[in-house]
Amino acid sequence: MKEIKKYQIIAFTILIISGCSKENIKPDFVDIPVVEGYLHAGQPIEIKVSRQVPYSNDAIFSSENLDSLSINIFDGNLNYELLSVGEGKYTNINLNINQLNSFRLDFFYNDLPIVSETTVPKKPENFLSSRNNIYVSDDIFTTNEPSEIDFSWENSDDSYYFILIENIELNPTPIFENDNLSNINKLFKITPTLSDSYSMNTRRFSYYGNHRIILFHINSDLAALYEESDNTSQNISNPSSEINNAFGIFTGINSDTLYLQVEPQ
Question: Strands, DSSP E only, in 137-246?
Answer without folding.
Answer: 148-152, 160-167, 187-193, 197-201, 209-218
